[in-house]
Amino acid sequence: MKMTLMGTGTSHGVPVIGCTCPVCTSSDPHNTRLRCSALVEEANQHFLIDVGPDFRFQALKYKICRLDAVFITHSHADHLHGIDDLRIFSHKNSFAMSRDRVIAEKYPETSGEGLPVYTSERTKGYIHQRFPYIFVDHDKGGGIPKLHLIPIDQNTSENPLLLGEEKKIQIVQIPMLHGNHHTNGYVFSHGAKDQKKGIAYLTDCNFISDQSISEVIKAGGQIEHLVIDALREKEHSSHCNFLQALAYAERIGAKHTWFTHITHDMSHEQIQNYINEKLPDFPRLSKIVSEGGSVSPAYDGLVLEA
Fold first, then answer.
1. Which contacts qualify for 136-142: CB closer than 8 Å, 24 or more apart?
2. What is the distance of C-alpha 5 from the center of its chain?
3. What pLDDT does residue 288 have?
4. Cis before 22? omega within 30
């Protein structure tokens, strides 16, 4: 199983429009960050996490030719507002198109209920409110995404969602808080109980409860990679700062920890230097690093394997 981080930037992306700071004008590709999104692949199955406004470019850049399911963390624009570009993977014709035999044969509607989109019941409601045209029949114009919104609240470590060939991929949702907004992290794992390996993806949060931390650990087995929200050094009202991210990583104990949803306050190199300076304050992480693990800022195009 592998996860490609297609975007690791904050809601503005980096470079930020109109900004001439050293990070936004840097020639280092590690400092160019699209909005957060990830692609999980296993045995020819392709699962997308979040579909932000950069999704079309990301899909072309990473040559995404099929999607088997989508997972949405929450309803903020930088994680959701590329949803119309799912049309190519889930095409639904308008009534007018379907009525014309020639057009209907040339552009057949995707069969079944549509592309599965897993998210919380709460976020499902926001998607219906934000994009009502997707979920009603209309008689003019072109196609719309054919999406099957599926609540994932019930999929805990005791009852994981099973997907992929032979249902070998286990997915568990992790409830978190993003300021006063509820969001979901996801743990993807595979393998038998005593050999399970996983990747935890926990973006857009500033509070992870003890119960949710326990769920991450139980769901992931040997957690090879933790991708966690770490906006900047300074505290923020709805995102983890670097120290908060390190504190959660200390408790989770993944072999490799990666900061994501990073703003333009510090460069990739500066963030790594900051982590190295603070690491002695986190003995478990220090031990993991001494044994071959790592704690680093993520970057666009990073591929994680478990």
1. 137/94, 137/95, 138/94, 138/95, 139/94, 139/95, 139/96, 140/94, 140/96, 141/94, 141/96, 142/94, 142/97
2. 8
3. 98
4. no
